[in-house]
TrEMBL record:
The keyword Membrane applies. Gene3D superfamilies: MetI-like. Belongs to the binding-protein-dependent transport system permease family. Keywords: Cell membrane, Membrane, Transmembrane, Transmembrane helix, Transport. This is ABC transporter permease subunit. It is found in: Cell membrane. The keyword Transmembrane applies. SUPFAM superfamilies: MetI-like (SSF161098). It comes from Pararobbsia silviterrae. The chain crosses the membrane at residues 9-30, 124-145, 157-184, 209-232, 267-290, 319-340. PROSITE patterns: ABC_TM1 (PS50928).
Length: 351
């Protein structure tokens, strides 16, 4: 086990370097970089980023009419006074010690910017994950036990319809119905808390928080039920048809005991081993459309804004951090798979 984990950890290094290198190279050719945007603001007195040139260089039209010393000062302000290779090497040295740099526009470190946006993503991700597994797994078990029945058919139609409706469209519909858009003003339309949240009691804060997350969490979670419930149903049906189940039934074991003591344990292996990746993915995969619709300032809006404004430290730093978390999570999932199912050996995972 130790050799496998060490080998996987060492393989993460070239993967991280490859991801960061590719993104860094792309940013050098994206037009409308931060230097050019500053040039345009100085020339026209307003924000009009995106005029030609490379992502880090200074186009002719952007610098035209400006004092050369002023141009050099702006390039130094954003770190573009050094050659690309030098900036790349310095970036790798910083990332090796988890120094992600400072945002160009938010006047804060990339770490603090990411941490400030995490509460929204954590809220949506955690509730989506908990509700998905809490509803879909029992539903999948019930569908497997009643396979082919009207209940199975009806629930399949319901979850597939929910899967087919985009979360953003469902969010708009929920706002129209329950957010005061057209019909009833039942739930708040925006934010995670009310303006007077600090003045509320502990119970009032909990209720206020729960009241605000009903609509965005509902819009996020409905589409996830189909995958987990159908996966649970199929794994249960696969296990129910195995020889050990037939043997237990032939020996006169009660059906409930066969289902929950034998089938349940083996059928849950694929779901349990995928839980670490789903757990982390639920936190990091911010939904831009859901956050925009419900005015939630989370990782989705941060990523979009960083790309649009060419905030390269935020783009590269968050990509590096989340890629590392994803690789570690995949390793944890593989280790959990071996621990849960003794039939799997570490050498088989390398094939």
């Amino acid at each position: 086990m130790f050799a496998y984990i060490l080998r996987r950890l060492l393989l993460m290094i070239p993967t991280l370097i490859g991801v960061v290198t590719l993104t860094f190279v792309v940013t050098q050719f994206v037009p409308g970089g931060p230097v050019e945007q500053m040039m345009t603001q100085l020339r026209h007195g307003q924000s009009r980023g995106g005029e030609g040139g490379s992502g880090g260089g200074v186009g002719y039209h952007a610098s035209q009419g400006l004092d050369p010393q002023q141009v050099e000062d702006i390039k130094k302000q954003f770190g573009f006074d050094k050659p690309p290779l030098t900036r790349y090497v310095l970036m790798l040295e910083d990332y090796a010690t988890f120094r992600l740099g400072d945002s160009y526009y938010q006047h804060a470190s990339v770490w603090s910017v990411i941490v400030s946006k995490l509460p929204v993503s954590l809220t949506l991700g955690l509730w989506t994950l908990v509700l998905t597994y809490a509803v879909a797994i029992p539903l999948g078990i019930a569908k497997a036990v009643r396979a082919g029945s009207r209940f199975d058919t009806f629930t399949s139609v319901v979850v597939l319809v929910g899967y087919a409706i985009p979360g953003f469209v469902l969010g708009v519909l929920l706002l129209m119905l329950f957010g005061g858009g057209t019909f009833w003003q039942v739930f708040p339309m925006r934010g995670l808390t009310s303006d007077n949240f600090a003045d509320l009691s502990l119970a009032g804060k909990v209720l206020d928080y729960l009241w605000h997350i009903v609509l965005p969490v509902t819009a996020s979670v409905v589409g996830n039920f189909a995958i987990v419930s159908i996966l649970t149903k199929n794994t249960f049906l696969d296990e129910i048809g195995r020889q050990y189940v037939l043997t237990a039934r032939a020996k006169g074991a009660p059906e409930r005991r066969v289902l929950w003591r034998h089938v349940f344990r083996n059928a849950m292996i694929p779901l349990l081993t995928g839980l670490p990746a789903a757990f982390v993915g639920a936190f990091l995969n911010g939904s831009l459309l859901i956050e925009t619709l419900f005015s939630l300032d989370g990782m989705g809006l941060l990523s979009y804004d960083a790309v649009i404004r060419r905030d390269y430290p935020v783009v590269l730093g968050s990509l590096y951090l989340f890629t590392l978390i994803g690789l570690v999570t995949k390793l944890i999932a593989d280790v959990c798979y071996v621990l849960v199912d003794p039939r799997i050996q570490f050498h088989s995972l390398d094939r």
